[in-house]
Amino acid sequence: MATSDAGGSGVRWWRRSRDLAQQQARAAQADAAQAMSHLESLEVDLNELSEIDAAAAAVRAGAERIGFTTPLSQEWDRISVETGIPALQFYELDAAYDARVDHEEDEARRIAAGFGAAAARLRELLPEVERFRATHADALAAAAAIREDTPGLIDRADATRTEASLALAAASNQGLRDGAASDALVRASTLIGTARAAAEERRWVDAHTAATGAVAAADEARSLATDLPDRAERIRTGHLSVRTRRDAILTQQARLPEVMSQLRRRYTVDAWRDVDGAPERVAAALKQVEDGLVELDRLVAQRPLDVPAGTALLATVRTAINDANEDLRAATDRLQRLDSLADDPQVLLERLRRRLVDARRFVSALPGSDPHRYGPTLDGLARRTEQLREKVGATRPDWGAVIAEADAVEAGLDAMIRTARGH
After folding, report:
1. pLDDT tens digits, residue range 226-242?
2. Separation of alpha carbons 141 and 48, rounded Å
3. In this structure, what are the phi and psi dihedrals at residue 65, rounded to the nearest 5 degrees?
4. pTM surpassing 0.85?
5. What are the protein's UniProt keywords (predicted)?
6. What are the φ/ψ torsions at residue 388 (nearest 5 degrees)?
């Protein structure tokens, strides 16, 4: 076949039929190309979203990604096979067709028919693709969100990382250090690089995962870095505070032997058995306090100040001081309570009586049959209270047992009221 200028729009009268056939072939090729372009634009996006959906599901399941499928990806694979056949037919026709060639009329009509059939088949598949998009709209939207959110997450992580880096530099100039903040900053930088590389390769699930981790790491670094000066100040003020509290505890410790002596001489061992080891526990706690203060002195004096280490050590010292204080208070309070009870046991009995009266008033105001429900409990606690009167009237009352029983009666009243209130 020879070439000619038959590619023009004119139809020559002496070969009208042949020129019209040429025009029909070109029009059919353009129409088929348009149908292919439309379908292909949908396919490219849906291919990527299908891959994202399957990859994200594999990550959630903790499964190997290769070969992992979801209902969405399985259906799209089936549709892709259906669209692939007419697409291949179009590309074969398109590769073989040259619009500049002056085809014979029959050949031109055959080409036009081929492109027309391809265009029709391609357009027939569009409703199937649209149905797929409607059926999996939520999953496709979630996959698209992973892809669309990733660049913003990377930018956010990068901006936060910069803020954290500046804050760490400022804290370093003030003689402060936080290894966790520095580690978080390095981790953020690494994850940002990973996310960017994955995004460039359009591995969106990997990119999104890395970007999300980068945001968290950068936020952690910034939070730790910006809070460094305040945490350092809390260490310094806390350092002075625990020294003051330590001195107060030492003063109380000096009185503890006399407290324990009074307990041993005036009351049976059952009344104070639980505080018997108080002197030893206080001494051990104060030893821990002294050792901690020596180390805290060293930390506060060094530059740069290791803020996390100082914070942790201060917390340990405070815990030891609290432990010592609790043991001192327990022993002292036990002696005071026993002395008060021995001097006037009626105060305790009257308090229990008032609590029983208040409890009966409370349950009597409850709706329905609830007053009857709690009546036996109240009667039992009342009998135990009367039995306490007998115990305190004995020749040598067991004051420890009296206190334990009084506490048990009050605990029973509290539990009943909580139950009645629905707590």
Report:
1. 999 999 999 999 999 99
2. 12
3. -70, -35
4. no
5. Coiled coil
6. -65, -35
